[in-house]
Amino acid sequence: MLLWTGTVLGALLGVWGTFEAGRMLAGFSVINAERERLARGAEIRDLTAKLRDTESKLAMAEVARRVDHEAQSQVEKSLSELQSRLGEATQELAFYRSVVNPSDGILGMRVQRLRIQPALAPRRFRVRLVLMQAARQETVTAASADFTVEGLRGGHATSLPLSEIGTASRVLNFSFRYFQELETEIELPADFVPRSVEVEVRPTKGASPIRQAYPWTIETT
């Protein structure tokens, strides 16, 4: 038994020795292979660390880009709001200048502005009328305002007075010294296509009625 065991072990050692000798003859070294494996492992760990560092930097750069984009959007929004406010302030300044000193020198009453805006219900609109007279006019003016919407209905020219389309007011009565804003709501028929608004302001005494036409233009703001 001992002889047989020794023979088997000797054969195995011979095979292993032959295998190792063959690898050494082929230029393979266990020690060198282990060193190379350890070197490759260190290189992989180094590359993995660099990859994670690069990914972290990319994530930070993306966050910075988003922050810069958001900041730029906020700045552009603020500039747009400031420009809008400046435009409104310029319009108001021009309006009050015209009240104090009309460019045409006329001191009597006039229609300064007409605005048409959509109301909440379909086919309903808010009509805002601004009247003014020069600030040098010291008397209080009493008058009434009326208007007619001109357009097409069934392919024919049609006039709709405020008395027919007004949802509340029939005639707008007022009194003022410098300027007055009047507002009323109207409802147009579904088959009516508006084209213009004919405004008529009638002072209760003294001056002649004022008539002025405006195109039908809807303002959304």
Layout of helices and strands:
Layout: H1 2-25, H2 30-100, E1 110-118, E2 124-132, E3 141-153, E4 156-161, H3 162-165, E5 172-176, E6 179-187, E7 192-203, E8 210-215
Antiparallel strand pairs: 1-2, 2-6, 3-4, 3-5, 3-7, 7-8
What's the β-strand tally? 8
Stretches where pLDDT falls below 50 for ≥5 residues? none
**The CATH topology of the largest domain:** Immunoglobulin-like
Quaternary class = single chain
Q: For the report, how would you describe the main beta sheet?
A: 5 strands, antiparallel
Helical fraction equals 40-55%
What is the architecture of the largest domain at the second tier of CATH? Answer: Sandwich
Radius of gyration: 45 Å
Number of spatially distinct domains = 2
Query: Helix-strand pattern, N to C?
Result: HHEEEEHEEEE
Mean residue pLDDT: 77
Q: What percent of residues are in strands?
A: 25-35%
| CATH domain class name of the largest domain | Mainly Beta
Contiguous helical run count: 3
Helix- and strand-based class?
alpha+beta
| Apparent shape | rod-shaped
CATH superfamily of the largest domain: Immunoglobulins
**First-residue to last-residue Cα separation:** 109 Å
